[in-house]
Amino acid sequence: MDDIIKRDITGLSREDVIGMLTERNRNYSLPQPFYNDPKLFQIDMEEIFLKEWLFVGLSCEIPERGDFFTVEIGRNPIVVVRDRQDQVRAFHNVCRHRGSKVCLAHRGKTAKLVCPYHQWTYELDGRLIYAGTEMGKDFDMSKFALKEVPLKSAGGYIFISLSDQPPEIDGFLRDLETYLEPHDLANAKVAVESNMIEKANWKLVMENNRECYHCAGSHPELLNSLVEWDDSTDPRAPEEFKQHTARMNAEWEKDNIPYRHVSHGYRNRMDRIPIKEGAVSMTMDGKQGCKKLMGRISSPDLGSLHLLHLPNSWNHAMGDHLIAFRVLPLGPEETLVTTKWLVHKDAVEGVDYHPEALRKVWDATNDQDRKLAEDNQLGINSIAYQPGPYSETYEFGVINFLNWYSKTMLGNLADSGKPTLQSVG
Asked: Per-residue pLDDT for 419 more than 60?
């Protein structure tokens, strides 16, 4: 107990973090500071959220040239825009004059990116094209373009990294393109969006998502359609489910629908598995949430394509709609969870789908998960907390998440002496 109290301080060093991660029991939850210490939260932001690839949004949110959306990664405001060459790009949303935010709206459409402070104006490709005569005749605008952020996209998903040397992700993106091809997200739209702030550390939010041990006691709406097994390789899955999976796999094979489990370490995985027999979508009655199916899909009974991208996203893609979840840390004990429901772009609200019915299951589930994570946080903050054991069968997904987190943190901490954009600019 004394060791727990001693380490629950704001003076933690990177060496302390390395020591705790090296010494931790791999099948137990993390020491308390990983869930509430301000200094450790800052290290999380620097070594995970400023270095890894993050899911930020979907290309169908900015379908036309000049469309943009903004997002904040810690203290770093970012703008994602479709330029005049139809290329999706990301920039630090920071004017090169005095540092003001350029785009203040959450999303919109613009011909140019204009800073509201002194009207410095940037082309959609980031070039500074107007700074006024006040800067003098010798002012070289070519040296003051917006700072670009590495961006990659696949299957309609947009990822950015704030690192000068992001990790490899191309293998995952190739698989993502293949698995999302039937859904054709280029011809989709966001029908509904919700934003929820959970008073819990981002890792607790992700841990809660990585297991369904709690589902039977907490998610009655979700279990109308979702099976508890994490994927087709789940060691708990009964023979009945395996047989149902085999039947559905044969149907998907006929329609050239990708379904096999694919993993890229613990960071990324995708796997299409059936939902409950008799149900075709994650709605209250298990029926289609949208009458118009996505992409080239011809049958609503497409199960759910589970997509995981660490550190900040999980997703369910069905025949009639797709649900994308994004997690962004706001503080040591505060996390923003954004949920987006996508349907075919030609689906008509009130005719093909009703937003309230489409979102009802996951609105309830998100709120239930929020309460679980917040209660978990309150208990962890106690002087009585110490790391506890995970079930290797029911909570193997949590174990995998923390193994990824620990390995990534240790690797990035080892490289943290190298200069990056964040450390020099």
From this structure: no
CA-wise closest residue to 193 among 326, 71, 84, 40: 326
- Residues with Cβ within 8 Å of 129's Cβ and at least 6 positions away in sequence, in order, are 112, 121, 122, 123, 141
- Alpha carbon 385 to chain centroid distance? 29
Residues forming a β-bridge with 60:
none
Residues 6+ positions from 368 with CB-CB distance below 8 Å? 218, 219
CB atoms within 10 A of CB 222: 19
Residues 298-329: b if buried by 16+ CB within 10 A, e if exposed: eebbbbbbbbbbbbbbbbbbbbbbbbbbbbbb
Tokens 């613990």, located at residue: 266
**Cα–Cα distance between 362 and 13 in angstroms, integer?**
39
- Checking DSSP bridges between strand 54-58 and strand 157-160, what pairing results, if any? antiparallel
Tokens for 204, please give them.
């607790």
For residues 92 and 126, give the distance between their C-alpha atoms in angstroms, rounded to a whole number.
Answer: 10
- The pair phi, psi for residue 220, each rounded to 5°, is -65, -35
- Residue-wise pLDDT for 52-100, tens only, equals 999 999 999 999 999 999 999 999 999 999 999 999 999 999 999 999 9
Crossing angle, helix 202-209 and helix 396-414, to 10 degrees? 140
pTM assigned to the model: 0.94
Q: Is there a contact between 382 and 100 (Cβ–Cβ < 8 Å)?
A: no
Is-cis flag, bond preceding 311, omega within 30?
yes
Residue 159 to residues 87, 176, 324, Cα–Cα distance (Å)? 14, 12, 13
Residue 12 CA to residue 32 CA, distance in Å, equals 12
Q: Are 223 and 275 in contact (CB under 8 A)?
A: no
